[in-house]
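Record 1 of the preview.
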Amino acid sequence: MKRKKTSETGTLLKKKVKKPQTVKEDAVSRLEKYAELDKNHPLNRPFTGTPSFRGPVFKRKYTNLICIFLFIVFNGLFGIYGIVAWKDGASGRLTRGNDFRAEICGIGKLKEKKFLYYASPSIDLNVRFCVESCPSTAGQQICLYDVDPNVLTPFCYTQGSTEANGRFCLPEEPIDKKIVDDELSKPQNYIKRMAGDLGAVDFFSYIG
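->
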């Protein structure tokens, strides 16, 4: 009995286990079924609005006519102001120095005198005038406009050695150089340039 049972077990092990076969048509039908389910899923359906919705351009109209009118008027005025400022204004004040009379160096009567020179920074920064070139030597007499340097007057000063920095003459002497640097970097200095002739008024020195 034992031998017979063993032989039957061996025979069963030798037999191949048959796997269930899938028909090609069944696989295709399953894919179609999944595709149909995916198509009909609520998140995949095309968006459709309500029948009464006719789009954002339906019966549109201006709602702020007064604001539009004011916007056009103000922009027109800004444009006119810009043209007048460009034509008749002195934009050079923003990039050039101005002398003790608030006249711009390198423009108008001072066209040939493009550099701003500080005569004695450690004594009075307001004593400044335009020169043709920055002095590179010290000891000579340098005077205001149309003054003879050979005649001693209150309008002549002992010349100091400087170097050109843009359109400004910076002293080479350390103390005077620091004073001029600090003066040129002050915000009120730009206000004086933009203020035109009013830049000569001491009122602007209190700003800041």
